[in-house]
């Protein structure tokens, strides 16, 4: 949307990062079967550009599993509004920590694994 543009008319990188964090967080919660919070985000690149109205898809993969954490790489792919052309527009790495009911770190592996 127009409110998500930078001063040069491109989609703001911060908006892309937020969408990537939402996608990665969804995966972290599914894999971890519960609450997961971002504790670290790195390696952001923006190799392509999006126009207003383009569709963004975020693809995520777990690349590392720690005792209480998951590292997830996210990639944003923009599809042109009135066509099928796609462009990779963003990439980044997120680390999530899984939390228990008291918001304390908990093991990635459940007792039933």
From TrEMBL:
InterPro entries noted in UniProt: Cytosol_ACT (IPR040170), HOTDOG_ACOT (IPR033120), HotDog_dom_sf (IPR029069), Thioestr_dom (IPR006683)
Keywords of this entry: Hydrolase
Membrane-traversing stretches: none
Source species, domain of life: Bacteria
Domain HotDog ACOT-type: 1-102
Keyword Hydrolase: yes
PANTHER family, A to Z: ACYL COENZYME A THIOESTER HYDROLASE (PTHR11049), ACYL-COA THIOESTER HYDROLASE YCIA (PTHR11049:SF5)
UniProt record similarity statement: Belongs to the acyl coenzyme A hydrolase family.
Protein name as it appears in the record: Acyl-CoA thioesterase
Taxonomic source organism: Erythrobacter rubeus
